[in-house]
Amino acid sequence: MRRYSVFALAREALRHHGGWTRAWRSPEPKTDYDVVIVGAGGHGLATAYYLAKNHNIRNVAVLEKGWLGGGNTGRNTTIIRSNYLQDESAAIYELSRTLYETLSQELNFNIMFSPRGVMMLCQTEHELRAMKRTAHATRLNGIHTELVGPERVKELCPIINIHGPRYPVLGGLWQPRGGTARHDAVAWGYARAASDLGVDIIEQCEVTGIDTTGGRVRSVSTTRGEIRAGKLCLVVAGHSGVLAEMAGFRLPIESVALQALVSEPIKPCLDIVVMANTVHGYISQSDKGELVIGGGADGFNNYTQRGSFHHVEETVRALVETFPMLSRLKMMRQWGGIVDMTGDRSPIIGRTPVEGIYVNCGWGTGGFKSIPGSGWATAGLLARGEDPIAGPFGLERFREGRMIDESVAAAVAH
Ligand SMILES: Cc1cc2nc3c(=O)[nH]c(=O)nc-3n(C[C@H](O)[C@H](O)[C@H](O)COP(=O)(O)OP(=O)(O)OC[C@H]3O[C@@H](n4cnc5c(N)ncnc54)[C@H](O)[C@@H]3O)c2cc1C
Questions:
Q1: Does 386 share its domain with 396?
Q2: What is the pLDDT of residues 196-215, one digit of tens each?
């Protein structure tokens, strides 16, 4: 891999940019791999990268039915934070956030990590109490957050109206090193670095069947032929149920569309991320100037991967009291992604009833922030058979009632 640097840029500028090579290889699939990962979203690609980098397992394929990063990884609102309530969550999300801090250097690819700070508003007494608890819990886990008053919220976010008649701002949970990153770049950066370490990334290759003869994984059928797999890791987010069915087991997840929208580009007016959980909306400003606005999930299971008008109306209506200037903006685009929701709103990383098949799913509405930590932990699990960070997130927890409950704690769990 040719390293990207200021010197490479200068050299190419003098050569009319004719010397750049492809960022990742596009090989024909081999017939046999030690590890086959299904899904080239952030989690699949990060898993492949850390398998090669941390564990020297390089005979690895990542199979993607569409294009790399075309699932939820390329559809989210890019919020990164680690202020989760439960210890297990704090461990994986903070590992992730820490890895994000230096990911551009690690991957030699600018992922545009911007630790601009994330503010979670408290707009009811109940929410204020809940956030107080979260602030104490995060502090005990060594994560820097602060519970701030309404005046400080206003100082950090001048466009906010803290005196709303229905939902006045009573305070906020502030994580100064939370922020955003460029979602496509995260996928592209991991793909490029993994490919350089020998991982085969195979796009336009849909998995259509899984051979589990004798109770263990043998091979996968794909639109580009049969591929034998020593181990198989399903990392397909909203399609996890579909792949699990191919392998003959069920997962405790539901798939629903989650939507987002962006406004027309405007001058810089918001340099932090604000999440308004009570009214269910969150907002940040992109480098292009668009306000990036996240809304709710559909109230019914589906695989549509589309936006719908009523969500635009509901989300903007909910936010307009807190951000009155939104009422003057045109909304430019909306879209949806299929997220995989578990009952406790925590992910699943672990073995399955079929020997040799592992899953990484259930990130729901909040798995962009966890891509580096999740890849790190899943690679550890695949390589060593167990991993301290992934351990608590196994499927057994649903049978044993050991939930890692982030549903009440997070409300909007992005
Ligand atoms: C609108 C929206 C806003 C969000 N906002 C945030 C946010 O602000 N912060 C945050 O942390 N998270 C957010 N999320 C959640 C986050 O995007 C996801 O949790 C995360 O991207 C999941 O990544 P993944 O790699 O598991 O899945 P994906 O990126 O969905 O990748 C799975 C891949 O599997 C492929 N696939 C499926 N079936 C097959 C098959 N049979 N064969 C081969 N390939 C297959 C798909 O094509 C896809 O590319 C948001 C999600 C949405 C939809």
A1: yes
A2: 999 999 999 999 999 999 99
Mutate to test the pocket of ligand 1, among 36, 72, 227, 286 (most ligand atoms within 8 A of CB): 72
If you measure from the C-alpha of residue 40 to the centroid of ligand 1, how many angstroms do you get, rounded to a whole number? 9
Together in a domain, 232 and 296? no
Q: Is residue 43 domain-resident? A: yes
pLDDT in tens, 214-229: 999 999 999 999 999 9
161 C-alpha to ligand 1 centroid (Å) = 33
What CATH number is given to the structural domain containing 300? Answer: 3.30.9.10
Q: What does the pLDDT average to over 228-236? A: 98
Q: Which two tokens stand for residue 103?
A: 């990911």
Contact call for residues 70 and 203 (beta carbons, < 8 A) = no
Q: Which of 117-121, 180-184, 191-195, 408-412 shows the lowest mean pLDDT across its residues?
A: 408-412
Q: Evaluate: CB of 379 within 6 angstroms of ligand 1.
A: no
Q: Which two tokens stand for residue 58?
A: 């390089």
**Residues 241, 348 within the same domain:** yes
This prediction's pTM: 0.97
Q: Which two tokens stand for residue 71?
A: 């699932």
Residue 155 shares a structural domain with residue 174: yes
Going by C-beta distance under 8 Å and a sequence separation of 6 or more, which residues neighbour residue 127?
121, 170, 277, 278, 411
Rounded distance, CA 395 to CA 411, Å? 23
Order of strands across the sheet that contains 331-342: 146-148, 171-175, 118-122, 273-276, 281-285, 290-297, 253-265, 331-342
- Parent domain of 296: 118-178+255-342
The minimum-distance atom of ligand 1 relative to the CA of 71 is 30
H-assigned helices in 18-160? 42-55, 87-101, 103-107, 125-140, 150-156
- Do 163 and 247 reside in the same domain of the chain? no
Structure tokens belonging to residue 324: 């009155």
Which of left, alpha, beta for 270 (phi over 0: left; psi -120 to 50: alpha)? Answer: beta
- CA max distance for the chain: 64
For residue 259 and ligand 1, the question of a CB distance below 6 A is answered with yes
Q: Is residue 8 part of a domain?
A: no
Q: Can you name the residues that pair with 233 across neighbouring β-strands?
A: 37, 358
Report the pLDDT value the prediction gives residue 409, as an integer from 0 to 100. 56
